[in-house]
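Thread: "does anyone have the structure for this chain?"

Original post by V.I.:
We have the sequence but no experimental structure in hand. Need at least a predicted one for the grant figures.
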Amino acid sequence: MSNKSIGKKIWAIADGYIPPESHGPQPEMLSHETVSILNSSDEEARVELTVYYSDREPAGPYILTIAPRRVIHQRFNDLDDPEKIPLGTDYACVIRSDIPVVVQHTRLDSRQAENALISTIAFSSSE
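Reply from O.Q.:
Generated one for you, tokens below.
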């Protein structure tokens, strides 16, 4: 049975921010942001992330590959090629894939013992 691609090729996350401090055992409770990408198709997905800042030119592309019928949970904290994303800095991200995928954004803020977790589906473009 063939798995049809679901999702979109272009996505955006407007509210990026990796808290600079953490509380609790690591790596589980390290403050972080994650982009989760679902590839439901039978083809490998090549995905490019471009990171936009309020005070300088964009960084990227950061290249990810998602195997067929798989999902990845990529922490923005771990992206380092072409450069690390600075902690405590506002940013946004545009995600472009060569096939339709589904994108979700999650932030764990563990700067204090009472942790905060947000998760939302990214904005998808109709292009």
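V.I.: this helps a lot. The two ends are 28 Å apart (CA to CA).
O.Q.: and Residues 50 and 60 are 5 Å apart (CA to CA).
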